[in-house]
């Protein structure tokens, strides 16, 4: 009976693929958008509670 391969073994078999430039831009823009929204929401919540 054949055993199911373990996740760690399968991950070791996968070749390394560097991120594409567009993927790097998407990650950067997502992080920037998240930080900006957190700052905006913080100041909006302070304005509303005053």
Describe this structure in words.
- By secondary structure, this protein is mainly α.
- The chain contains 2 helices and no strands.
- The protein has helices at 7-13, 21-49.
- The longest helix is centred in the C-terminal third of the chain and has 29 residues, at 21-49.
- The radius of gyration is 21 Å and the shape is elongated.
- How far from one another are the termini? 68 Å
Main beta sheet: strand number and arrangement?
A: none
Q: What would you report as the Rg, rounded to the nearest angstrom?
A: 21 Å
Parts with pLDDT < 50 across at least 5 consecutive residues? none
Dominant shape: elongated
Total DSSP E strands? 0
Mean pLDDT: 90
Helix content: over 70%
Strands, helices and their partners?
Layout: H1 7-13, H2 21-49
Q: Any descriptors?
A:
about 50 residues, mainly alpha, 2 helices, elongated
Briefly say what this structure is.
With 50 residues, this protein is mainly α. It has a domain at 21-50. It has helices at 7-13, 21-49.
């Amino acid at each position: 009976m054949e055993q199911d391969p373990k996740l760690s073994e399968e991950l070791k078999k996968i070749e390394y693929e560097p991120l594409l430039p567009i993927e790097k831009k998407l990650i950067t823009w997502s992080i920037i958008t998240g930080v900006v929204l957190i700052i905006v929401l913080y100041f909006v919540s302070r304005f509303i509670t005053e």
